[in-house]
């Protein structure tokens, strides 16, 4: 099997990780492209002694480590408000802590694999994750709208949100209900399923909400393929059901950390 075939299934998730790490779809995709160019130019250098996904992320991290100081230091007319907010916050959290948090809680790597990717002892990864979460939680607190039609799942998500110190302003089960609640409550974060109770779409609900005001969005869905298509801009934060509580906590912390708005058409 060719190297391209081995790594292709993992590219959408690397793009998700890169966007979450950088706080920008454009910056994240630039790093992914650079990693792919490095693989194409020197295929023999690709780590073949590990799983292809690990090798792909390892190549990405080599690019990130050599260039992130330059990217994070960029300022210019094209920088958005949320990116400037993110960069100010990033300065207070070490890069290893951010990477450890995202690699384990969002991408699902073990502490050992995350340690391999960031060149840190596996025993240190858990401490790095806790350090990042604690710092992010100190910086962010908001009101959250949950769009979810399964009562048990909605209650679980509500508990996670409250455990992080945020307020839940409502739980909507249809598109219309979600839009109305968002209009009335103006939440600082939206957690949205895709398939809703009346066969309406959480994607459409989010589109309607974002037409009225900007708010960061996390999709929690059993149908990630509807968003991770590569054919249109995708939300930075996407969690697949069934989910781990730690994954939801990490996504909430990162979304609020970057104060970013999901953007898709």
UniProtKB/TrEMBL annotation:
Residues carrying 4-aspartylphosphate: 193
SUPFAM superfamilies xref list: CheY-like (SSF52172)
A Pfam family of this chain: Response_reg
UniProt entry keywords in alphabetical sequence: Phosphoprotein
Xref: PROSITE patterns: RESPONSE_REGULATORY
Nucleotide-binding as UniProt keyword: no
Domain Response regulatory intervals: 143-256
Sections of the chain in a coiled coil: none
PANTHER family for the chain: RESPONSE REGULATORY DOMAIN-CONTAINING PROTEIN, STRESS RESPONSE REGULATOR PROTEIN 1
Name assigned to this protein: Response regulator
